[in-house]
Fold this sequence. Notes:
This protein is an alpha+beta fold. The chain has a single domain, classed as Roll (Thiol Ester Dehydrase, Chain A). The protein is built from 3 helices and 6 strands. It has helices at 32-49, 53-58, 130-137, and strands spanning 8-9, 13-16, 65-72, 81-91, 95-104, 107-117. Strands 1, 2, 3, 4, 5 and 6 form a 6-stranded antiparallel sheet that branches. A hairpin with a 3-residue loop joins strand 4 and strand 5 (95-104).
Amino acid sequence: MGQGKRPRWGEPIFYRVIYGDTDRAGVVYYANYLRLFEMGRTEWMRNVLGTPYKSLEESGVLFPVVEAHIRYKAPALYDDLLEIRTALEDASRVTLTFCYEIKREERLLVKGNTRHAAADANGRLTKIPEALSHAISGL
């Protein structure tokens, strides 16, 4: 990816808010949006790159979150059907940055991004696997 390329958005996924996602006021608890980001990211990797995250872990490469940013614009509520959109925003030799939008119908509720560093099983930084880098460069 890199400079000048636009994010590659995948197909949206949908999630219905359950009671356990909400706080006492019936509003989605703020930290649960990170779970929704993870759902979107996992499906993006599977559907756009053809690489299930599980297969990366099995090959010995992990992608822990090293940075997260969330901008809350409006609350999601119990029983809302949410649309989660995910895109790869940037990639380097050792990091991937994803961006997200969460909507209810056409209203943007939340947007944000996460940065992930490629790490081995011992937590040491490593290069992104060549096959994954190749798939990303083809976007």
